[in-house]
Amino acid sequence: MKNREEQLLMGTLIRDLRFALRTLARKPGFTLTVIGTLALALGANAAVFAIVDALVLNPFPVPGIERLVQLWETVPERGEDRSGVAPANFLDWQNQAQSFERLAGYSWWDANFSGHGEAERLQGTLVTPGFLEVLGVTAAAGRLLSSVDAAGQESTVVLSHSFWTRRFGKDPEVVGSEVLINGERYTIVGVAEENFEFPWGCEVWGALLLRGDELHNRTGHYLDVIGKLKGGAEISQAQRELDVIASRLASEFPESNGGRGVRALELSRAVVDIGAPAFLAVWQTTVVCILLIACINIAGLLLARGSDRYREMSLRTALGAGRWRIVRQLLTENLLLALSGGFLALPLAWFGLRMLRSGMPAHIRRFVVGWDQIDVDLRLLFFTIALAVVATLIFGLAPAINASRANLTESLREGGRGASEGAARQRWRTLMVIGEVSLALTLLVAAALSVQGTLRLAAGDQGYRPDGVMTAEIDLPEKFYPDDTGRRRFYERLVESLGAAPGVEAAAAANTLPSSGSGRSTTVEIEGQPVIRDSERPVVHYRVITPGYFETLRIPLLTGRNFSAVDREGAPPVVIVSRKMAEQFWPGQEAIGRRLRFGSREERPLATVVGVAGDVIHDWFLGGPRPTLFAPLSQVATSGMRIALRTSLDPGQAAALIRQEVKRIDPNQPVFNESTMTQLLWDRVLGLRYAAIVMAILGVLGLMLSAVGLYALMSYSVSRRTHEIGVRVALGAGRRQVLSLILSRGVFITSIGLAVGLLLAWGAGRLMESALFGTISLDLATYLIFASVLAAVSLLASYLPARRALRIDPVEALRIE
To answer: Phi/psi at 100 (nearest 5 deg)?
Structure first.
């Protein structure tokens, strides 16, 4: 009996599918319009879901990631919740925390690699024992680092699989060989497994040696810490345990640890770029709006088609078909449309993702966690099919239920007439088109704000002039340059020779440049404003510069003087501060002549402020200019510097000039990260550029879909009012009157949609402004301009059917009666 019921059910389903296919095939224009509309909307949703999945939900595919935790120190008084960890604090956590199987620390390592070919710069990481094992990494060749390596008997490194492939062609004989890194001999003991480059972009791992004074260092917060929870341990339990340890350390070491806490966060969340969730949430909301517009469009088409099939449904009802039977048949047709649109959406999503991935520069892509995981896979297929089914319920259920209420007597009474349809159905379709117009305006304004924000960041006032400036980076290894004097002489000679080269207007060097993606900060203590604890000392941006820095970047010196030859080593220390810093620490007072101490209290004497410079936006994502302290290279040496040339040479010539001069001074030093400052700025706002491009595409898509929806409504309205229009023309109505009759409804619908859309767009703009780091600013002109654009497009969509109404022959129209 059960088998028979299953056979009957299967037979019924097959008949429904066959009938649905025949029905859809009879209206190919309608079918293709619905499938195409749905494919565009589902394709956009699928593409964004793939990006969200790769960059936020599953950015770091490592085994047991649910037990991996990232740890930071926190300084609530400064608003810092992700501060580096001091080595001695890390060792205390390691010894006292019971919730972890193991804790491991790591630190950025600038590695100048030489041997086995031309010297080059690598991104490296120094790690404590067990770091790679905590992350579940295996060796593709040789072995991983161990406690033996941390003992310092021999300097050893592990290479990334990508670097091993690129530099050595996967030669297994490389394991055991020696190379030079920063002038020191290192033995390659192994190669990490393929696709592992954590921290992102890392190409070489070396042993981090914590010994001597580092065992008691609680003021140098330069470590990142990662841990693996014990089986059964929860992150909340670990957090409570670490809070107790931090409280104990604050009591024992109040000067260094007072006011400092600990934060534990799942690694899967910690590796996500801080701006990605906000950007992707905007994208996800946008594509959901696109899908809603598409569903409204399709529901309107189905309602119109249901009116055309009213007699058919009435006749089927009269012949004994139940309401459920009719609803099931119509839902089957809608499901076929949805699945067809879903399967067509996947190639569209694949194409969009391919374009997105190929547009990402290689030097940035390797640092975007999860970027290489973005692709079309089975999970995306299931997501798209599920979304298609949900869309079926959204756009298909109401028309199906409406069609199932068909009445034969009413149908025969209305049959043949081209009269207007029921007022209730007209209201529903009118409301749906109003919703489309309002959502489309919201998308257009959101897209415009994204584009404006990107242009403002990249082309707006930065506080300096990025055009015409070439940059490059150099890092002098301690092996060859062990003292400050040697490092100073190298950079001073290099800047002097570059500044005298033909085609160069000015040259300078700084430990970091605006928009370079790297930052330097230091604590300060202002004379007359004493602090008790280290954690109370305010933090400012910190720049070590040569005297030509302000001239090269065209940064104005507001008051005081620039650094000069008198500010040499051994002379009284001097600094220049930014206007923001002067206003923060000496509000309403003269900053020139004030004194402060920066860095470690023991190492730095009080320095005198000799100048105030204009504010510079070093990174837009920090919310505008920050207090900045400038110190002269002649008094404060550093190993790594960025060179800046203001030059009329093209970028290739300028980069070659820098490499040539460096090679002349020291042929063993590699030059890396050559780039124009304009390119640095554009790279820094790359995420916003992607957001703006995607939002612009989605905004145009929303505009097109809403215009199609309004056009479909007006066309159907004209077709249903053929008889009425014919009567009016026969009674003497002129072209202008007929045109006004049709257009007035389109203008009415558009006006209400725009009014609602302006309110939604204002709310969306406020949300974007708060979510996207203040890079979006509300602008009334933007709202009015795009409301006008949408009004013009909507008017055109209404005019085309109205124009067709002018060609109605009254005789033919009256014959319909």
So the answer is: -110, 140
Q: 557-560 and 261-266: which strand pairing?
A: unpaired
DSSP 283-308: HHHHHHHHHHHHHHHHHHHHHHHHHH
Encode burial over 549-575: b for 16+ CB neighbours within 10 A, e otherwise: bbbbbbbeeeebebbeeebeeeeebbb
Residue written as tokens 């530099």? 167
Q: Which two tokens stand for residue 712?
A: 């479909």
Q: In whole angstroms, give the CA distance from residue 75 to residue 810.
A: 81
Answer whether the bond into residue 605 is a cis peptide, omega within 30°: no
Under 8 Å between Cβ of 495 and 507: yes
If we measure between CA atoms, which residue out of 374, 90, 333, 60 comes closest to residue 217? 90
Give 547's Cβ-side CA count (13 Å radius). 13
Q: What is the pTM of this model?
A: 0.72
Q: Cα separation of 364 and 366, whole Å?
A: 6
Residues 413, 410: Cα–Cα separation, whole Å: 5
Q: Decide if 416 contacts 689 (C-beta within 8 A).
A: no
Mean pLDDT lowest for which of 564-568, 608-612, 795-799?
795-799
**Strand pairing category for 224-229 and 100-114:** antiparallel
Q: Which amino acid is at 197?
A: E
**Cα maximum dimension of the chain:** 106
Strands 184-192 and 261-266: unpaired
Give the DSSP per-residue string, 36-70: HHHHHHHHHHHHHHHHHIIIIISSS--TTGGGEEE
Question: What is the Cα–Cα distance from 463 to 467, expressed in whole angstroms?
Answer: 12
b/e sequence 464-487, b meaning 16+ C-beta within 10 Å: bebebbbbbbbbbbeeebeebeeb
> What is the rounded distance in angstroms from the CA atom of residue 478 to the CA atom of residue 463?
34
Which residues, in sequence order, are CB contacts of 474 under 8 Å at separation 6+? 491, 494, 640, 641, 642, 643, 662, 669, 670, 671, 672
Tell me the β-bridge partners of 113.
120, 181
Give tens-digit pLDDT for 519-556.
788 888 888 887 766 667 888 999 999 999 999 999 99
Find, among 532, 496, 439, 317, the residue nearest to 758 by Cα.
439
User: What's the pLDDT tens digit per position in 66-119?
Assistant: 899 999 999 887 777 888 899 999 999 999 999 999 999 999 888 888 766 677
pLDDT reading at 323 higher than 60: no
